[in-house]
């Protein structure tokens, strides 16, 4: 082989190598940029931006995990109808994250107020994944909304046995006490969590509600002021005295 031909081959090889490296660097940079955007939107709870991000990605990559993320973002944005539109095709597809798909389906049904469908889907998931604490938790929430308070309590306690986060379990058990008009027990459940530093908004709102209904308006006012829940604490307390609204559940 001539020296000139050898040089030509070597130069071509180097150029191809550099081109491949450049393409790889560009691809890696683009991926990192998308991941950074995703994290920023997640941290700031900018669900509309997440929805746009995932939709653009799905136009070029029909990835089930991306579609799940899109469905979840719609749910978090309060749009159950759109969430279910993208979630339904993923159900029963033998995906590695099947349980997550079903849990999101159940959450959507609860958000949409279809508690019977949520209960049935949660029961199916419990049968398939009897160690899934979130499945029991969501079935408990569904049962509570259907008025099956004893069944709800069993499921919520079971979810706690399976190590669901304490804040979620205690908040939902307090929800049952509120539904039973046992406001003092709700306070007894929620107050230690709050005093231990819990900043969960649902827990704090339920604690204030239970305190007002239990007659401890001064403590409720203290928390409202401290947590800046309302610019007019007295008006909020007076409104809570009159309301029969359901407590906020942890999902």
Automatic annotation (TrEMBL):
Entry keyword Coiled coil: no
Keywords: Signal
Signal sequence annotation: 1-22
SUPFAM superfamilies tied to this protein: TPR-like
Name of the protein in its database record: Tight adherence protein D
Source species, domain of life: Bacteria
Phylogenetic placement of the source organism: Bacteria, Pseudomonadati, Pseudomonadota, Gammaproteobacteria, Pasteurellales
Entry keyword Signal: yes
């Amino acid at each position: 082989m001539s020296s000139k031909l050898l040089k030509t081959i070597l130069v071509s090889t180097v150029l191809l190598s550099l081109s491949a490296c450049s393409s790889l660097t560009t691809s890696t940079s683009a991926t990192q940029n998308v991941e950074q955007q995703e994290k920023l939107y997640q941290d700031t709870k900018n669900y509309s931006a997440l929805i746009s991000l995932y939709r653009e990605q799905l136009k070029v990559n029909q990835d089930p995990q991306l579609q799940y993320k899109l469905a979840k973002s719609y749910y978090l944005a309060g749009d159950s109808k759109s969430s279910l539109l993208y979630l339904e095709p993923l159900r029963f597809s033998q995906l590695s994250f099947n349980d997550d798909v079903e849990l999101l389906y159940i959450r959507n049904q609860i958000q949409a107020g279809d508690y019977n469908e949520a209960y049935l889907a949660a029961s199916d998931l419990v049968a398939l994944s009897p160690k899934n604490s979130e499945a029991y938790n969501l079935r408990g929430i569904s049962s509570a909304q259907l008025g099956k308070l004893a069944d709800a309590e069993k499921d919520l306690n079971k979810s706690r046995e399976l190590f669901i986060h304490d804040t979620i379990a205690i908040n939902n058990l307090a929800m049952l006490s509120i539904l039973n008009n046992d406001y003092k027990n709700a306070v007894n459940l929620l107050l230690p969590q709050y005093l231990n530093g819990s900043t969960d908004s649902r827990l704090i709102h339920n604690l204030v509600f239970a305190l007002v209904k239990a007659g401890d308006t001064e403590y409720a006012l203290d928390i409202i002021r401290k947590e800046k829940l309302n610019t007019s604490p007295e008006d909020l307390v007076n409104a809570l005295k009159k309301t029969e609204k359901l407590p906020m559940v942890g999902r």
